[in-house]
């Protein structure tokens, strides 16, 4: 089994958070990450401005417009190498 690259994990997280957003648990489950790893990626992506955390009854993470542009570039790179 081959390991996913950081870029592949970031692509997955940005995809999961696209649209109406996702909770940390949902992101961890759908991206097949443990919660600590998901939390680390979410902190980095938030710091970079690729996702934003929307506070309500619970925190939702949503892909920003900068994140959407990055996601588009990551997908193009992914198709180039596959």
What are the main properties of this structure?
82 residues; mainly alpha; Arc Repressor Mutant, subunit A; two-stranded antiparallel sheet; 4 helices; 2 strands; 10% strand
Shape designation: globular
Q: What is the straight-line distance between the termini?
A: 17 Å
- CATH architect. name: Orthogonal Bundle
Widest sheet, order of strands: 1-2
Unreliable segments of 5+ consecutive residues: none
Q: Can you give the helix content as a percent range?
A: 55-70%
> Main beta sheet, described?
2 strands, antiparallel
Strand percentage: 5-15%
CATH first level: which class? Mainly Alpha
Tell me how many strands there are.
Answer: 2
| Rg calc | 12 Å
Going by CATH, the homologous superfamily would be Winged helix-like DNA-binding domain superfamily/Winged helix DNA-binding domain
H-E order: HHHEEH
How many distinct helices? 4
Overall tally of structural domains: 1
